[in-house]
TrEMBL record:
Family to which this protein belongs: Belongs to the peptidase C56 family. HSP31-like subfamily.
Protein name: Type 1 glutamine amidotransferase domain-containing protein
Taxonomic superkingdom: Bacteria
SUPFAM superfamilies for the chain: Class I glutamine amidotransferase-like (SSF52317)
Source organism of this protein record: Paralabilibaculum antarcticum
Pfam families: DJ-1_PfpI
InterPro entries membership: Class_I_gatase-like, DJ-1/PfpI, Prot/Nucl_acid_deglycase
Keywords from the named record: Glutamine amidotransferase, Lyase, Stress response
Length: 222
């Protein structure tokens, strides 16, 4: 049975009290699709344990179904510490979004190292929306950045500006991806868009989470 590691944020409030956390819908949709296709899932976060979420993000019916699922809820609220995870146990790692990701996962060397090992072992690295921030400092076995020269996407600057968070985030994701050498592309705001470049799969925004999961399953089933 293939195994996928979901890498989640532990960040909730910044120094100004702005709440962010994990966007659970981008966890729930891929989770159910992957489980339906016989894939086992674990959760990891920088601090382990409970994953922070905004109350507003819990209102979606798909999220409510996710949190009513015994296995999903147990794993989500008891995420593993990086020290409890062995990269060789997983066939892929997936970074869901939520603004919290841009605050902690780009700087978490332990999770970036696990992701780099998974990729170097022939596994898949995936991200959706702000989850692509978690890819910024992943390195391959030769020490080069995973994103350098890769086709990728993530939450666009236009989308960030449209919701008024461009002045709240520590950096604009589209700009950061380009600075790491990624061949960044995107389409109109809020439209489904997924880029597959070998064993790297990225989705632009929340509308792209299911397609990302479908592309991941295609690779894992090969």
């Amino acid at each position: 049975m293939p195994k996928v590691l979901f890498a989640l944020t532990s960040h909730f409030k910044d120094e100004h009290g702005w709440e962010s956390g994990c966007y659970v819908l981008e966890v729930a949709v891929p989770y159910f699709y992957l489980v339906k296709n016989g894939i086992e899932i674990d959760f990891i976060s920088p601090k382990g344990g409970t994953v922070p979420v905004k109350k507003l993000d819990l209102d979606d019916p798909k999220v409510q179904s996710f949190l009513k699922d015994t296995d999903a809820k147990e794993k989500f609220y008891n995420s593993k510490l990086p020290s409890e995870v062995q990269a060789e146990d997983y066939d892929a790692i997936y970074y869901p979004g939520g603004h919290g990701v841009v605050f902690d996962l780009p700087h978490n060397e332990e999770i970036a190292s696990i992701a780099g090992q998974i990729y170097s072992n022939g596994g898949v690295v995936c991200a959706v929306c702000h989850g692509s921030a978690g890819l910024l400092n992943i390195k391959k076995s030769d020490g080069s950045f995973l994103l350098d020269g890769k086709n990728a996407t993530g939450f666009s600057n236009c989308e960030e500006e449209a919701i008024g968070t461009d002045t709240k985030v520590p950096f604009l994701l589209e700009t950061a991806l380009k600075e790491k050498g990624a061949n960044y592309s995107c389409i109109a705001n809020w439209q489904e868009y997924v880029v597959v470049d070998g064993r790297l799969i990225t989705g632009q925004n929340p509308a792209s989470d299911l397609k990302m999961a479908k592309e991941l399953v295609k690779i894992l089933q090969k």
